[in-house]
Every structure is written in C-alpha cells, then in structure tokens.
Design goal:
Bound molecules: ligand F0G
CATH topology of the largest domain: Aspartate Aminotransferase, domain 2
Order of helices and strands: HEHHEHEHEHEHEHHEEHHHEHHEEEHEE
Number of helices: 15
Distance between the termini: 53 Å
Radius of gyration: 21 Å
Shape: globular
Number of strands: 14
CATH superfamily of the largest domain: Type I PLP-dependent aspartate aminotransferase-like (Major domain)
Helix content: 25-40%
Strand content: 5-15%
Largest sheet: 5 strands, mixed
Number of domains: 2
Strand order of the largest sheet: 2-8-7-6-5
CATH class of the largest domain: Alpha Beta
Structural class: alpha/beta
C-alpha cells in the first residue's frame, strides 16, 4: 500500500477555536456594520480572512527569536537576515520594512511620481493604492484567461506580453519607472506566473530600458507551481527556481507575513547599489535605520529562519495540497470556484453562487456575510468593494469579478477544519435561491475602503 501524504510537522502548542450560535453571529455581524474586518477574533470560528501574518511559526523560529539582537545599528540579527536573503534570493542589498506595503511605500517613494504608469499583472490593492496615492496609474496587463473561472491553465497569473509591450511602445519611457509582477497573482486567485513569462518580461524590460520588480509575497508558492507544472523544472529544487526567478529582475518587494511564515515583517531586495542608497533615505524616514527598518532584532531572526522553512518542497506540497483539498471538496458539492485552485486560497465565484443578488448590491460581500452567519467563517471580499472607486469619475469599478476568498493560514488548520468549511459553504449553497438582496454603503473611505466600510442590508437582518 502506498503511504498517504502527511504534514511534515507536528504540533507543540494549541489555541482554542471559538464556537458560537447563529443568533450570536447575526448580532455580531450587525454590530460590525456587516464588515468582517470589524469582527473580534473571538467571534470567529475559522478565520480565513487572510494568510498574511497568521501562520504558525516553528520551534526553530521561536528559538531564533530568543537570540534576537536588539542593537539599533549593526545587529547580528540584521546580518543573519541579510545572509538569508542573499542565499535565497541572490540580492546583495536589502532594506527591512515593517510589512509589504511599507516596502512598496519606500520603493515607490524612490521611483514613482505623478503621471507615471506602472504596468504589471493584477496589482494587489496596497500596491494599487500606493501607485494611485502618488497620482500614477497601475496598468493591468494580466492574460485574459485569468478571468475564465473554470478554464484550466497552468499559469493563469501570467503577464500578457503583447499588452505589456503595447504599454511600453505607446508611452514615453520616462513615464514608466518600473514593471511590477506579482507572484503568485493574488488578485487573480493566487495563480502562478511561469518562469518563461518572467524571463520574457525581463527581455522586454531590458529592450525598453525599464526596471523590473517582483512583488514576491508568495514567491515560494510560485516556485512550487513552476517545479510541478513547467517543463524543465521538475528536477530543480525550489531554491534553485527561486534564485532563477529573481535573477531576471532588478529587485523585489516582500511581505514576509506570507511565504516567510512570520507574523510581521517585510523587505526590499535590490541588485543596484545606487538605487539602494536612494531608497535608504526613505527607509530611514518612514521605517527606521537601514539595519532594522520596521523590524525588531528578534523578528529579523525569525524571518531569516522562515525564509528557509518557507522554501522547503515538502512544506509547500502540504500547504498547497491543503488548499487543493478544500477546493476539490467544494467542487464535489457543485460550488462554483476558480479553477485550478491557487497557492494560498480558494476563490468562490459569487456571481454564479448568488445569481439573484445584483452587482450593485455586492454579491461577494453578501456571500462572505452568509458564510459567517452560517458557520462563523471569516473570509474576504475580492470584488467591487475592494476595487474601490475610479479615482477620476468616483464611480464604482465593476470589473465583473466578485470573489469570496477563503485564504488558508500556514500550518494552522487541519483537514478536519477544511471539511467543516466545505460543509458550511454547501449549506449556504443549498439555500442560495432564498438570498436575493445584498447591501448598500453607509460610510466609506476614499481609498482602500473595504477595510473600514459600513454597510446596511436591504430588507434588514
Ligand atoms: N502584495 C501582495 C501580493 C499581497 O498579497 C499583500 C498583502 C501585499 C503586497 C501587502 O503586504 O500586508 O504585508 O503590507 N496581502 C494580504 C492579503 C493583506 O490578505 O492578501 P502587507
């Protein structure tokens, strides 16, 4: 008999899962103005809001924390991290930041100005926010197949090279400070970008003399997909693949809260010393001195260790395997999900799930609220609320995409928890025809509104 696949770790410390009644959850979500970010964590049974900063650190990471050096300048923890980043990514220069968006803030302060264009594949919302905040424009050049929910394609996160070249050809190059490609492509469903695509973007960037960066929050998951799906890579290690990916670029921004399995932290990796010096000035203003940035010594030590654990093939197989397990279970129940499942989350197509809720009433948010009321699952809306308003016309940006994302934290939940999640989604699916109305906005912020938005439900609750 073939032995079954098992998680390559065992558990030393546990924390409670909070159970509740439907009535409690209805009250809580009403008090939270139907915004899942406003819920207290004790009100949530299974928290799939994000896989960011929610992973379980290892014994080695916790022990590395005890060896943290909290010196203001030149701490040993800084050098541990510098060596780990060099070994894993190849970048000689790096700046620590408190998280991924801080890395974006520092890098874009250095490179992006009003009127610029920043092409890439579907920019993550903080990336888009940082570009638009500077009155520059993110140009989405993702391949069209990314919006086909059930078409199987190995690399749905790819950049459409014709669209990218068109942007480079038809605009003054001094208005294009960088191309940024997100691996994996979170907004498109945690879908990977192939090595061939990264290489081609590099070739275009070279030809037009434009810098090329990777938004690398889930770079190790991306490498796992390259190893398991792309010709010529099955015999290479994850670390060899990672190092080849970064070799094609000028630098990276990193949210360490994802693939480096820490609760807080980020960094910028850079090839060029001049750019490092320019960015250092912003790092010092916004984050902290260049040998700690936004991080304490203990956190840099845990991150250095996490970079090695996060690029382990067995770990990645179990992590991405769990996401696929949840996806296949939901598919068996007939639930419309984005296929194939990506690296960190299952995305539900809420427009097919709730066909009676009009687009203007936010079907994805409606489904996210139903999943909470049904079984205490906290998910996130990746739809019109998150897409914000157009900065010029202030109209809602209806892209046709209305996803509910079930993001799985790393090394936190068991497959039994996944069975529970699938059952909750199925119960809502079984009563989908009775869900006909959604929400109206009561209060919203001008940018990144979904975090603080307040909503009212049509027909009450
Ligand atoms: N880039 C990508 C692709 C991300 O997914 C995120 C965060 C960031 C940048 C920003 O990093 O949170 O450390 O400041 N994504 C989280 C999510 C919040 O839930 O997907 P951060």
């Amino acid at each position: 008999m073939n032995l079954p696949f098992i998680e390559p770790f065992k558990i030393k410390m546990v924390e409670p899962v909070y159970m509740s009644t439907r009535e409690q959850r209805e009250n809580w979500i009403r008090e939270a103005s139907f915004n899942l970010f406003n819920l207290k964590s004790e009100q949530v049974t299974i928290d799939l809001l994000t896989d960011s900063g929610t992973g379980a650190m290892s014994d080695k990471q916790w022990s590395a924390m005890m060896l943290g050096d909290e010196s203001y300048a030149g701490a040993s923890s800084y050098y541990n991290l510098k060596n780990a980043i060099k070994e894993i990514t190849g970048f000689s220069y790096f700046l620590p930041t408190h998280q991924g968006r801080a890395a974006e803030n520092v890098l874009f302060s250095t490179l992006v100005k009003e009127g610029d264009l920043v092409p890439g594949n579907s920019h993550f919302d903080t990336t888009k926010g940082h570009i638009e905040f500077r009155k520059a424009i993110p140009v989405d050049c993702t391949v069209d197949v990314a919006s086909e929910f059930i078409v199987w394609h190995p690399f749905k996160g790819n950049v459409d090279l014709d669209k990218l070249e068109d942007v480079l050809k038809t605009n003054p190059l001094e208005k294009i400070p960088l191309i940024i490609v997100t691996i994996t492509n979170n907004t498109a469903g945690g879908q990977p970008v192939s090595m061939a695509n990264i290489r081609e973007v590099h070739n275009l960037a070279q030809r037009y003399g434009v810098k090329f960066f990777l938004d690398s929050a889930r770079f190790a998951e991306n490498a796992w997909f390259i190893k398991t799906r792309e010709d010529g890579y099955s015999g290479k290690s994850i670390r060899e693949i990672v190092s080849e990916m970064f070799s094609y670029t000028d630098g990276m921004t990193m949210s360490s809260k994802k693939d480096a399995i820490v609760n807080m932290g980020g960094f910028i990796g850079l090839k060029d010393e001049d750019l490092f010096r320019q960015a250092s000035a912003y790092n010092i203003i916004y984050e902290g001195f260049i040998t700690y940035g936004g991080m304490s010594g203990r956190d840099m030590n845990a991150l250095a260790q996490g970079l090695f654990e996060g690029t382990d093939f067995e770990f990645l197989s179990s992590r991405i395997g769990q996401v696929a397990y949840l996806g296949s279970k939901m598919k068996k129940y007939g639930i419309p999900i984005l296929e194939p499942t990506g690296g960190h989350a299952v995305f539900i197509d809420s427009k097919s799930f709730l066909p009676h809720v009009p687009e203007e009433e936010f079907p994805a948010q409606s489904l996210a609220v139903e999943l909470f009321v049904e079984g205490g699952i906290r998910s996130s809306e990746i739809g019109t609320l998150m897409a914000d308003r157009d900065p010029v016309t202030r109209a809602n940006r209806f892209s046709g995409k209305e996803f509910v994302r079930l993001a799985i934290p790393r090394r936190v939940y068991s497959d039994n928890h996944m069975d529970y999640v699938a059952a909750v989604v199925k119960n809502v699916y079984d009563r989908r025809d009775s869900i006909t109305r959604g929400f109206r906005i009561i209060k919203e912020a001008p940018l990144l509104r979904h975090f603080t938005i307040e909503l009212e439900r049509f027909g009450g609750f």
